[in-house]
Each structure stands twice: as C-alpha cells, then as structure tokens.
Amino acid sequence: MSLKKIKHMLEESEWKLGILLNGFDDLKAKRIKWISNGIYTNKWFADPFILDFDDKQIIILAEEFDYSVHRGRIARLAIDRQTWTIVDCKILLDLKTHLSFPMTWREGNHVFVCPENYQSGAWNLYEYNAGSESLDFVRQILPEKLTDATIFKNSSDLFILSTYEPRPNGNTLTIWKSSSPDGAFVKTQEIKFPENIARNAGSIFNYNGKLIRPAQECNKSYGHAVSFQAVTLENGLFEFKEEFRYHSTHPKYQRGTHTFNTYNGLAVIDVHKLRFPFLGGLYIGFKDLLVKLHLKKPFEIK
Fold it and tell me: For residue 123, what pLDDT is reported?
C-alpha cells in the first residue's frame, strides 16, 4: 500500500444516520434516534433526504459508500421504526464517478432528484420512478461542478444555491435563477460569509413561518458542524443570518455533522467519526502539531 493510500485511510470518515421525530425541535433538544446499519456492516450512509414514511418504515435516499467499491452511489434505504435499523438498501444510481447528496425536489406528484456528481462536470436532474424503484435521467441543469446544490422555489421563480469547484467548502455561496423548471438558470448573486459556512447542509425548510437554510461549517474540517441560517428573500436577492449551530452529540461520532433535511414534520441528520479513531486520531493530532509549530499549512478549503 502506498503512503498516499495510507494517509487517505487514516483521514477517512465513517457516517451514521439519525432520525428526529419532531423535526428541528428535536434537534435543538438533542432528541435523536440513531440508526443501526444492520447487516450492512461494510457500508456507511450519509447525505440523507426523506422520500416517504409511515408508522412502520421511513424511506430515505442517501449516499451509499461500500468499502469494496470505494465511491459513492445513490441508494434507497428502508428504516424499521421498531428497531431503528436499516432493513433494506437498494442502489438506484451507480456511475463511474462519485455520487452523493441526492437533493430531493417535489413538483406535484413528481419527485425529482439532483445528486451531487461534480466529478462529471455537471449537475443533472433525475425523476424517481416508484414503480421500478429507479432514478430516470431527465436533463442536465447546469454544466457546473456544483457541490451539495439545492433548489428553492419562491412563487414561480426557482433558485439554485451552491458552492462549486475549486473551493466547495469555502465562504462563497453562488445563486442561479430561472422562471421555469425547464428553463435556463442564470447566475444572479454571490454571497461571501465571514467564515466557511457557504456550502449547503440540506434544503431550505420552513420552521414556525420562518425559512431556514442548513449550511455546513467547514472552518476546521469538512462537515464540522451545521449552521442554521434564517433566510430573507427580497427582490430576488437572498440574505442569511445564523440562528443556531449544531455540533454532533453522538458519543462516538463527534468529528462533525454534515446534513439535515426535513419532510412533513420528520427530519434526518448524519454525523461522522474517523473510520480508524485511534490511528486516525494520532495522525491528525500529529498534523495539527505541525501546524502549531508552523511546519505545515493549516487546513485548506479546496
């Protein structure tokens, strides 16, 4: 094994999902049902979006990462509400390039999914086919390397909010606008934050009559925490002001959190830790020491 692969392995994360039965209120109160992977011991799941649920199961779309495949794929997961365990995992989209963050967007009875696939150089639209349990390609939305992009609809206007390569985890959020789902999106705004909280951590949601955007705080590392920002939209221009910041409260998965999404009162979140906590912790601690001694540059947002 090469030195590069060893370093990558020591820095590698492992993710865990959590369900919040009362949505954002449960997150603030730290009431989270942590989900077991069940038989899927060689995989982790992240970037969850709720597809549907009833009193027996919760169905979500998520990034599936199998260590034997070693790239992200989009999966449909079924979570049993008695055992809080993933009881079924079906791969819906598998490409040669890494897939993650299956942003879900609903129009009438149609469920559209726009996964992150920046390695392909574009952001594409798929429709979820419940009958065949598949994602059917519709069209390319933007020829950009978008990272964790979301769509927000206001009246007849559609907005895409995203960071993108080469600084996806930085402080600049870019916004595109279209007046039609089938129309072209035009860049309308760039917002620079005073810290690295530009990257989306989920879709904008309504909480007690207020719009909230979950955003990733990446000051120390990727997906370190989630910044929940109040959204103001006037004359087609956005403003954001942080109201709450969440750091992982799981006893083992404390390295960070990355995604929060809500649907019909239910919410889902992910948290992460190092795959090899002891050796990985020693390695990262050594790197931090080199930074303090000015022998290495600090964490750089790429």
Answer: 96
CA-to-CA separations, 88 to 60, 102, 268, in angstroms, rounded: 11, 18, 17
Q: What is the DSSP string of 178-204?
A: ESSTTS--EEEEEEE-SSS--SBSS--
In the sheet that holds 146-154, the strands lie side by side as 146-154, 157-164, 172-178, 186-192
Contact at 8 Å (CB) between 216 and 227?
yes
23: helix, strand or coil? coil
Give strand ranges (E) for 143-286: 146-154, 157-164, 172-178, 186-192, 205-207, 210-217, 225-234, 237-246, 256-263, 266-274
Which is higher by pLDDT, 42 or 10?
Answer: 42
- Which token pair is 232? 């103001």
pLDDT value at position 293?
67
For tokens 């060689």, what's the residue? 42
Bond preceding residue 102 cis, omega within 30 of 0: no
Phi, psi of 190 (to 5 degrees): -125, 125
Instruction: Tell me how far apart the alpha carbons of residues 77 and 87 are, in angstroms, rounded to a whole number.
Output: 8
- The residues, any chain, with a CB within 8 Å of residue 231's CB and separated by 6 or more, are 204, 210, 211, 212, 213, 238, 239, 240
Decide: helix, strand or coil at residue 18.
Answer: strand
* Residue 142 backbone phi and psi in degrees, to 5: -140, 135
Ordered DSSP codes for 221-233? STT-EEEEEEEEE
Contact yes or no for 226/257 (Cβ under 8 A): yes
Say what the pTM is. 0.92
The domain made up of 3-292 is a member of CATH 2.115.10.20: yes
CB of 114 closer than 8 Å to CB of 103:
yes
